[in-house]
Each structure stands twice: as C-alpha cells, then as structure tokens.
Amino acid sequence: xxxxxxxxxxxxxxxxxxxxxxxxxxxxxxxxxxxxxxxxxxxxxxxxxxxxxxxxxxxxxxxxxxxxxxxxxxxxxxxxxxxxxxxxxxxxxxxxxxxxxxxxxxxxxxxxxxxxxxxxxxxxxxxxxxxxxxxxxxxxxxxxxxxxxxxxxxxxxxxxxxxxxxxxxxxxxxxxxxxxxxxxxxxxxxxxxxxxxxxxxxxxxxxxxxxxxxxxxxxxxxxxxxxxxxxxxxxxxxxxxxxxxxxxxxxxxxxxxxxxxxxxxxxxxxxxxxxxxxxxxxxxxxxxxxxxxxxxxxxxxxxxxxxxxxxxxxxxxxxxxxxxxxxxxxxxxxxxxxxxxxxxxxxxxxxxxxxxxxxxxxxxxxxxxxx
Length: 371
Description:
Layout: H1 8-30, H2 36-50, H3 59-75, H4 88-112, H5 118-125, H6 130-139, H7 144-168, H8 188-207, H9 213-227, H10 237-252, H11 260-291, H12 296-303, H13 308-317, H14 322-351
Helix pairs in contact: 1-2, 1-10, 2-7, 2-10, 3-8, 3-9, 3-10, 3-13, 4-5, 4-11, 4-14, 5-6, 5-7, 5-14, 6-7, 7-11, 8-9, 10-13, 11-12, 12-14, 13-14
C-alpha cells in the first residue's frame, strides 16, 4: 500500500505555525515571564493569524502533544499531592455554583448591554467546551462569529494575563517548567513503560469519548505510575517544552480567518463578558481560599473560565497541583455540556426560530473549533 503524504500546503502552514509559536514562546521564556512558553506561543500565533496568515496545527500533531502534556502533568503527582482529596468535594461544589452564576451573569450582560439574542448570549457565556459551543451555534443559527470571538478572546486573555497577574502578586515564580529530573536520570525502560501505559489510557478514554480523553488519559497513566512510585522517569525537558509550544500554537491558531476589524467589532463584548465572568468567579474562589487550605494559584487556575487543555497547560507551566486543577475542570465541563445541550435547545425553541439580522460567517467554525 503506497504511503500517503500530507498536502504540501498543510506541511508548509504547519511548519510556519510552529516556527512562529517557538519564536514567541522562547522569547517570553528567556525573559523569565511565568508560563512564557505558553503565553508567548499563543500571542505570537494569534497576532500572525490576525495579520492574515493561515495558522494551522493538524489534528494528529495535536493528539500527540496532548499525550505528552498528560505525561508531564502526571509526573508532578506524588503520594503527598493526593492527601488533600478529602477536602475537594466542598471546593468542587462551590465551583458548580460559581459556574451556574457565571453563565447567568455573562448571558445577561451580553443580552442587555450588547443586545445579543438569548441563544448567542448563552453560548458566548458558556466557559470551555468550545467544540460543543461552536457546533450548537451553527445548529441554532446563532451569531457564530460573535460567539467564536468571545470564546477565543476569553481563552487568550486568560492564557496571557493569568501567569503575569499571579507573578505580580508573588504567587508563582518564572523559569520553572514541569517535574524535576530524578537524581540518577530517567532510565530508558521506565520511559518506555511510562509512554506505553499513558498512551494506552489516552486512547481508551478517547474511545469512550471522555472529555479531553487524550490529555486526561495520559495524565492518569502517568499519575498512577508516579504516584505509586513504580516509575520515576520523566520526559526530556526539550520534548516537554516542544509540546507546550505546539499546544500554545493550537490556541493561537483559533484566530485564523478572522480579521482585525472583525475582532474590534466584538472587542467590547469579549472584554466586558470576560470581566463579568472573572468578577463572579473571583467571589467564589475567594470563598474557597478563606475556608480551605489551598494555594491561591491552584484555586485561581482551577476556577478560571478557560478551556480544559489550556488550563491544565498553565497548571504544568506554573508547577501547580494538576490533580486538583484537573478535577475541577472536568466537573465544570460536565456542567457546561449538559447545560448547553438542554438550555440552548429550549431557548431556541422558545424564540420560534433563528434570531434576526444574522451576521455572515465565511466558513462556519473554520479556525475556531477544537478536536
């Protein structure tokens, strides 16, 4: 059977995207900015995409990087990190209430301040679960362009702003990445076992359609092996850094096929809705910090209204507790998924048809969906 090579244009666009991401990530990391590899790659690719270049990362490359990031996240887990599980139910319960309140407040803001129809406002207010949001926006004939820009801008603002804000208040330090290398180095046999087990669990969770299955499956396999002490090996720093840069490129590429003028048109709605969401979440995160003995940075990232993979990436880059952060984002994903399916449909039916004056979208979802 002949080998089928990817199209030349796809290869060139991918190489260009990764080079831009690497330049941005390495620059900010060299300057000592916390999570510089992540925020730098996102920012650089987003700017180039908005300038008119087609930024793209193939799905196959994304999946490989999800597995690598999952392995790195799991390597941070130790038996000590699991001792606080008994205190998590209250924190997750607070997150549930915070998510509902945030969606209600942000939906109302977009509806009454910017005049969005109820369907578009609700979809634009739902944090994370971007693939579902974009799909539902197309199905219910919502303002797809506005919803996509508000969603992507929220992720961009979080990825770039949160690390710097946490560093400003002395809650995280720059120049730290991943788990420490074992004193004797990583053995080849342990690395093979680590990659094999993590990949197998990643594929299994993806097969059963678990949210973020590739990342969380690999993380689970790595966490089990490291948390039990069976394996001490970690991925080489250069491989982990490359994976972080690639995933930053994925986030920045969401702005492909979107012009500056389009972004400016929706900038007020994007920034305003982000401010409302952050204000609501901050109140509930503050409650958790007052009542429970968690590190502020862990709580901030766990409650941040961003996509699962990007928030887990920040947890890794900032050397936070990936188990705590991951548990909260999975819980929020479940809330948003059910809410999107039920309430968006009921709102659409209640309106009796699509909202008026829909703005055109060149190619629905292009450059704005995730796998």
